[in-house]
Design brief:
The chain is of the alpha/beta class. Helices cover 30% and strands 17% of the residues. The protein has one domain: Arginase, Chain A (3-Layer(aba) Sandwich), CATH 3.40.800. The protein has an 8-stranded parallel beta sheet with strand order 2-1-3-8-7-4-5-6, sandwiched between helices. Helix 1 crosses helix 9 and helix 8 runs parallel beside helix 9. The two termini are 26 Å apart.
Length: 303
């Protein structure tokens, strides 16, 4: 049955003996900092699903972002598994459940697509690829997220790339979209560079195009892409907790998504840090839903 509240009306499961190519799931809470409230972010996955509904009956139409219908061969091959049950105060339990869902999707051969949630959900999502490595990470973000510990929490939204650098199955990372005064201090930038992270600022992308980021991805690399909504310019994506001027455009982000699929292989995708209480007329959720559609289109076309 087609899900009335699922992304693009995708079913929860496909007919027997039909394997999904991509599987979407949401996670509202990851590792929330003490005294912080992540409940606003927990609304994001369903907001993105709701924004996709107008297009649910149009997915056989021509998509000009993709150069053809989403399912170019006519075979609808994606599912929406709903949301992982998470609680704001259950940081360790949330991480366990998100990682388990990621692993479960990977065992089916499908590409997992996670809808957050704040950026802390990225850590267990990446951990779930432990048996599917080596992977490269391409991060779209205004910040580099290399804090080691903040408020005595090592797994919060300021630390996903630091924790990823400690995962043996992560071969490298390209971080794209940084600008202004981010959350990083000099020591964190130096640690990122020492690890070998390729830091590509938003200004570089505006000056040189998306090739400034894509050239750092090894040919044929298996890539997990993580998109923090504040990586986009707040004129396009104002519904974030930490807006910063000068961010990437929608077209630049979808060109990076498509470029990842051409240069390597997109094996995982997440979208995080959408903050629906700060959305304007649902436009941020609509933009986010289109980013997810472009990721699915890339995954389908790289088969």
């Amino acid at each position: 049955m087609i899900g009335a509240s699922s992304f693009l009306g995708f079913p929860e499961r496909l007919p027997q003996d039909t394997k999904p190519i991509a599987a979407i799931f949401g996670a509202g809470h990851g590792s929330t900092y003490p005294g912080k409230d992540s409940s606003g972010y927990a609304l994001a996955a369903d907001a993105v699903r709701a924004a996709s509904r107008e297009d649910a009956g149009l997915i056989d139409h021509w998509d000009f972002d993709l150069g053809g219908p989403l399912f170019d061969d006519g075979a609808h091959c994606c599912i929406d598994l709903g949301n992982v049950p998470t609680r704001m105060e259950d940081n360790a339990g949330n991480r366990t459940r998100i990682e388990a869902m990621t692993r479960e999707v990977l065992t089916t051969g499908a590409v997992p697509i996670l809808l957050g949630g704040d950026d802390s959900v990225v850590i267990p999502f990446l951990s779930g690829f432990v048996d599917a490595g080596p992977i490269w990470i391409v991060q779209i973000d205004a910040h580099i997220d290399w804090r080691d510990t903040l408020h005595d929490e090592r797994y919060g939204y300021s630390s996903p790339m630091r924790r990823a650098s400690e995962m043996a199955h992560v071969a490298g990372m390209v971080q794209v979209g940084m600008r202004g005064i981010g959350s990083a201090r000099r020591a964190e930038v130096e640690d990122a560079l020492r690890f070998g992270s390729r830091l590509v600022t938003a200004r570089q992308v505006h000056a040189e195009g998306v090739a400034a980021a894509l050239r750092h991805i090894p040919e044929g690399a298996r890539v997990v892409m993580t998109v923090d909504c504040d990586g986009l310019d707040p004129g396009i994506m104002p519904g974030v907790a930490a807006p910063s001027p000068g961010g990437l455009t929608y077209t630049q982000v979808i060109d990076i998504i498509a470029g990842v699929g051409k240069r390597g292989r997109l094996v995982g995708f997440d979208l995080v840090e959408l903050f629906p209480p700060g959305d304007i007329a649902g436009l941020c959720a609509l933009t986010a839903s289109r980013l997810v559609v472009n990721a699915i289109g890339t995954i389908i076309r790289q088969r």
